[in-house]
Design brief:
The complex is a heterodimer of chains A (about 170) and B (about 120).
Chain A (H helix, E strand, L loop, with lengths): L1 H20 L16 E5 L4 E7 L4 E5 L8 E5 L6 E4 L2 H11 E8 L7 E8 L6 E6 L8 E5 L2 E5 L3 H5 L5 H4 L4
Chain B lengths: L2 E6 L4 E6 L2 E7 L12 E4 L2 E3 L3 E2 L4 E2 L3 E3 L6 E4 L6 H10 L9 E3 L1 H10 L5 E4 L1
Parallel strand pairs in B: 1-11, 9-10
Antiparallel strand pairs in B: 1-2, 2-3, 4-11, 5-8, 6-7, 8-9
Classes of the chains: A alpha+beta (about 170), B alpha+beta (about 120).
Chain lengths: ~170, ~120
C-alpha cells in the first residue's frame, strides 16, 4: 500500500513537472496599485521604525516594542536638528501614513516635493515603502508615485503636512 | 458582526463571512508537506498590493499577512494553470506553497478589498 502511495506521489510530481515545462509564467511582478484598494496597510501599533525624507523635512523615529513611545530625530533646512519623545501629533501623523488607500490614477507629470516614506513593522518582512507628494496646500490631494505612474491617495493632506512642524507639532507636550 | 476568514486545509477552501453572512467561498492551495500552513487563530496584520517577496523573489499580489513570518493569503502567480495546481494538490500534498494560502486572482482581489487589518483568520 505504501509503495502504491509513493508511486502515486512520484507520478503526480512527474506529471506536474511535465506540465510546468510547457507553461508560461503568469508573473504579477508588473502589477500596479489599483484604485479602490490599499497600496499598503499596516497596523500603527506594529510599527517600530519610521523614515520620512522630503526636501523640507528629514525624520527618523523608532521604538523597541509596541507599547513604547517613539523617539523622534528630525531636521529641516536652516534649523537646528531636534530630538523629542513622540506625542499625540506624531500618533495622528503615523496613523495617517500607515494605510494608503488608492483613489485614482493621477497626472504622471506632477512635479513637487516628493517624500520617501519607510515603515518597518514587527514582522520579518521588508519595510512598507511609498513615495508621496506632500501638497503645498492642505486642500490639495496627496499623490503617490509608483514607477512612472502617479495616483491620488486617501491620505489627509493637512495631517501629512503636519510633519513639517517638527518636534513642536509631533513631540510630547512639556 | 466581526469579519472572519476560515481556511479549511483538508478541503483546500476559503470561506469569508461577516457574522453569519457568507461573503465569498473559493478554492485555495496551502503549504506543501515540507512547508505546512500553520493552523490556529490569527489576525491579518498587514496588507500589500502589489507585493513581491524579497525572501523568495516572487510576486505575492493582494497579500494579506496573518503571521509575522511572512505567511499570507495572496494571489497565485505560478506557471501552471490553477486547475493543474489543484489537481496536483489533490494527488499529493508535496504540491503546495511555502506556507501561504494561494488564491486565484479574482478571489484574492475580492478578499483583499473586503478584509482589513484585524480580520480574524482561522486555519484548521
Amino acid at each position: 500500500m505504501r509503495r502504491l502511495l509513493r508511486g502515486r506521489n512520484v507520478c503526480a510530481i512527474a506529471l506536474f513537472g511535465i506540465a510546468l515545462a510547457g507553461c508560461r509564467s503568469t508573473s504579477g511582478a508588473g502589477a500596479r496599485p489599483e484604485p479602490g484598494t490599499e497600496y499598503y496597510a499596516v497596523a500603527p501599533e506594529s510599527i517600530r521604525e519610521v523614515v520620512f525624507s522630503s526636501p523640507e523635512r528629514k525624520l527618523y523615529a523608532y521604538r523597541w516594542n509596541g507599547s513604547a513611545t517613539f523617539q523622534i530625530f528630525t531636521a529641516s533646512p536652516g534649523t537646528a536638528p531636534e530630538q523629542c519623545a513622540a506625542g499625540d501629533g506624531f500618533g495622528r501623523w503615523l496613523t495617517a501614513i500607515a494605510t494608503i488607500p488608492v483613489r485614482s490614477v493621477a497626472d504622471s507629470t506632477v512635479a513637487g516635493a516628493w517624500a520617501e516614506v519607510r515603515l518597518r513593522d514587527a514582522t520579518d518582512l521588508d519595510a512598507n515603502e511609498a513615495t508621496l507628494l506632500v501638497p503645498a496646500s492642505p486642500s490639495d490631494p496627496v499623490l503617490m508615485r509608483v514607477g512612472e505612474q502617479s495616483f491620488v491617495v486617501g491620505i489627509d493632506a493637512a495631517l501629512l503636512r503636519s510633519v513639517n512642524a517638527g518636534c513642536a507639532g509631533l513631540g510630547r507636550a512639556r | 458582526m466581526a469579519k472572519k476568514i476560515n481556511v479549511d486545509l483538508t478541503a483546500q477552501t476559503v470561506t469569508a463571512a461577516d457574522g453569519g453572512t457568507v461573503f465569498h467561498t473559493c478554492d485555495c492551495v496551502s503549504g506543501d508537506s515540507a512547508h505546512p500552513t500553520p493552523s490556529g487563530l490569527f489576525k491579518i496584520n498587514r496588507k500589500n498590493h502589489p507585493y513581491t517577496s524579497k525572501k523568495y523573489g516572487v510576486p505575492m499580489n493582494y497579500a494579506m499577512f496573518f503571521t509575522t513570518t511572512g505567511e499570507a493569503l495572496h494571489q497565485y502567480h505560478g506557471p501552471a494553470p490553477w486547475a493543474l495546481l489543484r489537481l496536483g494538490r489533490a494527488l499529493t500534498n508535496a504540491v503546495g506553497s511555502h506556507g501561504c494560502v494561494r488564491l486565484q486572482e479574482s478571489d484574492a482581489k475580492k478578499l483583499y478589498g473586503w478584509a482589513s487589518n484585524g480580520t480574524v483568520v482561522e486555519i484548521k
